[in-house]
Amino acid sequence: MRTFLCRSLCLGLTLCMAAATQAREWSSPNGYFRVEAEAIAFDDKTVVLKKPTGELIAAELAELSEADQEYVQSREAKEAYAKSVDQMQTWTAADGMKVRGRVLAYGKKDLTVRRQLGKMIVDDKRFAAMDPLHQKLTLKIISKIVGQEITDEKSVEEWGKTLRADTRTFPLEGVLMELESGDEIGVPFFLFAKEEQELLQPGWKAWLENESNTEAQQRESLMMQTQAMEYQRDRENRNQIEAVKLGLLATATGVISIWEVILEPAQGNYYRRTSVMVPAQNSQAAEQMVMQKYPGFRVVGVRRASR
């Protein structure tokens, strides 16, 4: 079972969050794509931008102009980011319990539980020695999966007696969260309130489909982490990050038109809303070209971006 990327890998990419930066123009190398926005997060592959309207978009640095790439790496940009991602967040569990912690990355992880010398051991730690919040979250996860109410140390000890000498393994899918204690725990999506599940899940399917592509997984985790930070700053701002794809613009020649094709994930797919910039003779050709590359989506809009 693939586990969460270690913190040093997924967060050690000079990730920065902006406290308050000036908006600037960002563009593709050939200038067919331009947008006025402020950078609110970046690593060495991706930048997340916030438009004056509050809309959030993410672009790959390699698809942006050389000037944009240099700006992200500049001392000026890094000094502008006075606020880091270390700030704690408050999340709501499905039962209404408030959880203090910050989400770090998407991931899959096994939760292992066994009874050893009369004591409950969770992921090689004695349950009784764990941080109280870590204990509560662990009990909620186990309760949900086994379909039995387990609320405290006494009840988990009683349940543990049914294990005998066996080890129970629970595969989890969700996010890695750092608690105020410094503990890191895998939190499955089902533990969050519905509103917060909807906030965190877009991008999950793309993360799953790229289990052999660390760079793509880091990009999805960065977007999810940034989404979470923006939501914590302004609970009314639930704008999902839109992934902007500019790679096809490199093929633009002559006076052919540039079209923006806006995609929504098909029902049941946890992809992100995506905007694809594409050179084509007309809107129908642009739509057909994009749908060939993005079969898990449906087109919700096509507009001429430039000539």
TrEMBL record:
Coiled coil: none annotated. Residues 19-77 form the SLA1 homology domain. It comes from the Bacteria. Keywords: Signal. Pfam families: SHD1. One of its GO terms (molecular function) is protein-macromolecule adaptor activity. Residues 1-23 form the signal peptide. This is SLA1 homology domain-containing protein. It comes from Aporhodopirellula rubra. The lineage of its organism: Bacteria, Pseudomonadati, Planctomycetota, Planctomycetia, Pirellulales.
